[in-house]
Amino acid sequence: NCKPCGGAIPLCMIDEFDLSADLVDRKVRKMTMISPTNKEVQIGQTLKDDEYIGMVRREVLDDFLRNRAGENGAKLINGLFMGMTLPTSKDESYVLTYNDLEGQEGNARKGVKKTLEVDVVIGADGANSRVAKEIEAGDYEYAIAFQERMRIPEDKMEYYKERAEMYVGEDVSPDFYAWVFPKCDHVA
């Protein structure tokens, strides 16, 4: 799944998650912050030679983490979470209801309704989390992001070899920011 996420990861994540170096498309060592009045601030001059912000494509990182979980015993299911029955005692499991989408393609896929008993549920299903709604986690603030990937000429791509840009101001986003992050062969 390609998620609309900038894909910037901190350097500590490489070691903590034992990530393969080839997952990192670009190593950003320079950041240009651009204010609403178009004043630019350069960030990164104090970084050591081995410090950077890793730029990854989420579909590549997510696939790597998913496959590694499978290699370590996790059962991978291509499905859509539909609901959950909470345990009523310490000895009971959570019972998840989901639509199994294995082998189905396209937007019209419905899936086969199935259940699964588990000891732990991790709701890592995004800002509009079905898991959070199911457990009535309450209202929380979130932002919806849009990402566009653009191929640019190689000479322009060279400018972004180790640089990212962040734009703040209402002309680019009424209450957030916009970014240009370099990836393997494009900017996002």
Characterize the structure shown.
There is one protein chain. By secondary structure, this protein is α+β, with helices and mostly antiparallel strands. The chain contains four helices and ten strands, in the order βαββββαβββααββ. It has helices at residues 11-16, 58-71, 130-134, 154-159, and strands spanning 8-9, 26-28, 30-34, 40-43, 53-55, 79-85, 94-100, 112-118, 163-168, 177-180. The strands form three sheets. It has a four-stranded mixed sheet with strand order 4-3-9-10, with no helix packed on it. Strands 1-5-2 form a three-stranded antiparallel sheet. Strand 6 and strand 7 (94-100) form a beta hairpin. The chain is elongated. The model has no long low-confidence stretch (mean pLDDT 89).
Quick synopsis:
The protein is an alpha+beta fold.
Kindly list the characteristics that best describe this protein.
single chain, 188 residues, alpha+beta, 4-stranded mixed β-sheet, 3-stranded antiparallel β-sheet, 16% helix, elongated
Derived from helix and strand composition plus strand pairing, the structural class reads alpha+beta
Percent of residues in helices comes to 10-25%
Order of helices and strands: EHEEEEHEEEHHEE
Number of helices: 4
Taking the sheet with the most strands, its summary is:
4 strands, mixed
Shape: elongated
Q: Which whole number gives the mean pLDDT?
A: 89
